[in-house]
Specification:
alpha/beta, 5-stranded mixed beta sheet, 6 helices
Length: 159
């Protein structure tokens, strides 16, 4: 099973870069023998990510998101819940190309992974800075754990 874990964010804007920070931490967190997992730093998104998304059998996107919750709150939106969240929050993205736009491209191309999830973290600060705030940084290990659990559950369900 080919799984794409896509971290999104601008690492020059404090908590906005949490998706990329989680991808970097996940590279050391993945258990040995978990084959077929690609970790991709998606930066601030671009249409070039449509190809890797379309090629993935399963997809996990990691990003900062407005959850109307305390900073560092982590939520996982899976399957249709991910789609609903993306479509309801189109205007909250600071990225040039929104994830909802990439979803639309993948659907038009005929491949939006059936098994998909958004791991979202509530930011505290979106200002110049290379590191996340303490509240958001504290969510990184939990995000890694949840991503590994999710991939494992999908693989167990596919067997």
């Amino acid at each position: 099973m080919r799984t794409l874990v896509l971290g999104i964010g601008n690492t020059l804007l404090t908590d906005e870069g949490v998706g990329v920070h989680i991808i970097k931490a996940l590279s050391e967190f993945l258990p040995p023998g978990l084959d077929g997992v690609e970790l991709l730093d998606g930066g601030t998104l671009s249409f070039t990510l449509a190809g890797p998304i379309e090629e993935a059998e399963t997809l996990v996107v990691v990003d900062a998101a407005e959850l109307k919750s305390p900073p560092g709150t982590l939520r996982v939106f899976e399957g249709e819940a991910m789609d609903a969240f993306l479509l309801s929050n189109r205007k909250s993205s600071v990225h040039e190309v929104g994830l909802a736009d990439l979803r639309a491209i993948a659907i038009l191309a005929g491949h939006w992974p059936q098994r998909r999830a958004l791991v979202a973290v509530q930011p505290q600060l979106l200002d110049w800075g290379e590191f996340p705030t303490a509240a958001v940084a504290a969510a990184v290990p939990e995000a890694c754990r949840r991503i590994v659990e999710l991939i494992g559950a999908w693989r167990d369900g596919a067997q």
